[in-house]
Every structure is written in C-alpha cells, then in structure tokens.
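Exam revision sheet. Question 4 asks you to relate a sequence to its structure. Input first:
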Amino acid sequence: MALRNHSTIMEFILLGLSSDPHVQALLFVLFLLVYLLTLTGNVTMMLVIGADSHLHTPMYYFLSHLSFLDLCFSSVTVPKMLENLLSKRKTISVESCLAQVSFVFITAGTEAYLLSVMAYDRYVAICQPLLYGQVMSKQRYVLLVWGSWSLGILNTLINVLLATKMDFCDTHIIPHYSCELPSLFLLSCSDVSTNLIVMFCSLIPHGLVTSLSIFFFYASIVSTILSITSTSGRSKAFSTCSSHLTTVILFYGSGFLRYFMPTSGSSLELVFSVMYSVVIPMLNPLIYSLRNKEVKAALQRTLGKYLQRFQRQNTER
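Answer key, structure tokens:
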C-alpha cells in the first residue's frame, strides 16, 4: 500500500493563522460563530427546499446540492482549525492530511462543476424560456448534478492517488491552517514533477473550462436581458440570476487568487484561503435567502407549518 511509504514522517505541524495565544482565542470564537452560522444556514436551506413543494424545481435542486457541498467544504477544514486554535501541539497525521486534501478536492471540484451547471440552467430559463421544461427535464437535471459529483470525484482520485506515493523526509511544517496539495508538494523529498503536471492538467477542465462556460452563459444572458424593452422585465430577469452570479464571483475570485499565487504561507494567501473555504460557505445561504423572494416565502411557510404543528400538540396535551 502506498501509504506505508510515509515512514520517515508520520505527522505534520500546521502553523495556523497566528502563534499569539490571545489572537488564537479571538479567532476560535470568531470561526466557531462562522461555522455555526454555516451549519445553520445550509441545513436550513436544504430542509426548506426539501419540505416546500414550490421549490421542487431544477434551480432549487441544484441549490440544495450547493448547500450540501458548502456544508461539507466547511466541515473538512474548520473543525480541525478550531481544535488547533486551542491546542499547544498543532499536528495532523499524514493519512489524515491526505484525507483532508481528498475531501477538499471533491467538494471544491464538484462545486465548480455545479456552478457551471447552475449557470446553464439560468441561460436556458432566460434565453430559451419556451424550451425550459423540455431541456431541464427531471432526468436531465439529476444527471447534470451527479455528473458534477462524478467529475469532482474523478479529479480527486487522479490527484490524490498520486499524492499517496510521495515521501516526506525532513520538513514537516505546513505554513497553513489546513492541508492542501500545493503545500504537500513543497514538503515532499520525492520527485513531484508528475504530480504537478497532472494537477495543472486537471485544473484546466476544473477551473478554466467551467469559468469560461459560465462567462459564455452570462454573456448570452446579459445580451438577452438588454434586449428586453420593459424595465420591469429586465429587473425580473436579472433578479433570477443575481444570487448565482454573486456566488460565482466570490467562489472563482477567491479561488483563483488563492491557487494562482505561490504557496508561501503569507498573510494574503491565508486571507484568500479563509475567504474561499470558510467565509463563502457561510455567505451562500444568506445570498440566496436574502435576495430571493421564493426562498423567503418558502421559509415563512415552513416555519408557519412547524409553529402550527407545535401549537396543535400543546393544545392536545
């Protein structure tokens, strides 16, 4: 088994965000609140979409998977970061580190593909509204979602299986709060040229193709919206895709800034990483709930049903 090759170094040290105990205590409270908000927001979004029949449409099916991905993405890194903020010895085993890399790859990769699928959904809804029901049939939109998951998992298997063959001999300090593949390349004492080539080749469909497809879809959407004569029609058409466009800008903007800068553990790199893996999963349910009338209405209906059920149970007692 390839994991047995890691006999020289059995664990890494994660330097985290700060070495100051007072700053660590403040960061623990801050990120604990962020994580709790992330859990609450994304679980609420999934429950509301599942419970309200008005939201059983392709767009909200995609959104429920996005919420699940954000929940997983945050849960991969934040609990370990919170643990290390309270610990004097901030270590992670090689196997756990590789497992964390795997889940980061799966969630981030799948989310990139899913965001491009959601852009395609908005493109069909705005540019080809008469064909929307035919193009976005249940069979097709379910297939698009599971295709996103399959591509994310395939991308992970290709990169992480190669990573398990790396040897770590001398340096075992990661200048970061979590394990990421570029950081491990710098620690390896074996040849990682193949790993680098495979990673960059996989980043082309993962990042470039998905971002270009989103750009194409939104260029067509903007062109269609501008051709609408009425102001109310333009406003209604734009409101249907504004939340998704905000999510795309945040996800791809912070992701490109994070992964296209040298891995050095600099303050700027850590800021973009926190934005990418901690803050955005918290913001997405807020973006979709605060700027979406259908979600807000569904949330009110769902809360109303639970309150009525609770009151009925109390009166029966």
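Marking note for examiners. The first helix runs from residue 21 to 51.
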